[in-house]
Specification:
The chain has about 300 residues and is an alpha/beta fold. It has one domain: Luciferase-like domain (TIM Barrel). Helices cover about 40% and strands about 15% of the residues. The strands form two sheets. An eight-stranded parallel beta barrel has the order 1-2-3-4-7-8-9-10, surrounded by six helices. A two-stranded antiparallel ribbon has the order 5-6. Helix 1 links the parallel strand 1 and strand 2. Helix 1 packs across helix 2, helix 6 crosses helix 7 and helix 8 crosses helix 9. The longest helix has 21 residues. It starts with a strand and ends in a 10-residue tail after the last helix.
Length: about 300
């Protein structure tokens, strides 16, 4: 199992550079950031752009993978985003993963002055966005005239460092999103099952994630794809697991989700006074001692 972190884009760069360097030095597999224009309780505080943040992070890190968790069509366009992704991959020497999701009806959906899209339209747009982004990052010139997005002789030259393109990690739990992940994703992202009651237990959460993984595996089988070729990423902080309370708690959480089929577990870099508050020393030990203890875990998938 891989251990990664997510760093919210809330830091002026004089502070942020040290946070990103620390993620690299601590040995995390990847360091992601949220790609929103603002987010929930952080709406009225500092919040910087994901792409410039990752570009700066590429310059102060050497090993850790970088990426969005996740980008959505709520305010992104495939042609311009493809150019930014290609540039990030160049700046980082091929260390970028692009997380993609349908987005929600929150701030990102209304900040440009429009009405939020329905769940069906968000799913439609994620499909069309992903299909075109895939073409843009694998073909030097693209003309595309179907679905919600267009491209006319769009150039993405010289293309990404990574071949055949930057990997996609697609956040999805519904049937359409899982089919999309099976067709286009090198990774799949879950935050658990949001339909569970507030008093749900870790055991219930892990069973729900196991069911999600089984549906992903079925979608891969339908697409003629080996399910083991898709990384399964859990973003913690939204499940009833005490992952950041101690190293032992993290290891126990990782064991539980490895049995559910998860191959990469992501913890939030601590932010005091927020829902992501945690002991910085525990966080650092999770990156070192905890990661060492879970590195050899086998997943619970039948294909792994």
């Amino acid at each position: 199992m891989r251990v990664s972190t997510v760093i919210l884009p809330i830091y002026p760069w004089r502070e942020g550079r040290e946070v990103w360097r620390a993620a690299d030095d601590l040995g995390f597999h990847a360091a992601y950031t949220y790609d929103h224009l603002s987010w929930r309780s952080f709406r009225d505080g500092p919040w910087f752009g994901a792409v410039p943040t990752l570009a700066a992070a590429a310059g102060v890190t050497e090993r850790v993978r970088l990426g969005t968790l996740v980008s959505s069509p709520n305010f992104r366009e495939p042609v311009t985003f493809a150019k930014e992704v290609m540039t990030l991959d160049d700046l980082s020497g091929g260390r970028v993963t692009v997380g993609l999701g349908a987005g929600t009806t929150g701030f990102d959906a209304t900040v440009l002055g429009g009405e939020p899209w329905s769940a069906r339209e968000r799913a439609d747009r994620l499909r069309d966005f992903t299909v075109l982004l895939d073409r843009l990052l694998t073909e030097p010139a693209v003309t595309h005239d179907e679905g919600h997005y267009r491209a006319h002789e769009a150039r993405t030259i010289p293309g990404p460092v990574q071949s055949p393109r930057v990997p996609f990690a697609i956040a999805a739990t519904g049937p359409r999103g899982l089919r999309l992940a099976a067709r286009h994703g090198q990774g799949w992202v879950t935050t658990g099952d949001g339909r569970l009651p507030d008093d749900a237990t870790p055991t219930q959460s892990r069973a729900a994630v196991r069911a999600q993984v089984e549906r992903l595996e079925a979608a891969c089988a339908d697409a003629g794809r080996d399910p083991a070729s898709v990384e399964r990423i859990l973003l913690t902080g939204f499940t009833p697991d005490p992952a950041l309370e101690s190293v032992d708690a993290f290891v126990e959480t990782a064991h539980g989700y490895a049995e559910a089929g998860i191959t990469e577990i992501v913890v939030h870099q601590p932010i005091p006074g927020t829902q992501f508050a945690a002991d910085e020393r525990v966080f650092e030990r999770i990156a070192t001692d905890g990661a060492a203890q879970v590195r050899g875990l086998a997943t619970g998938t039948s294909s792994a």
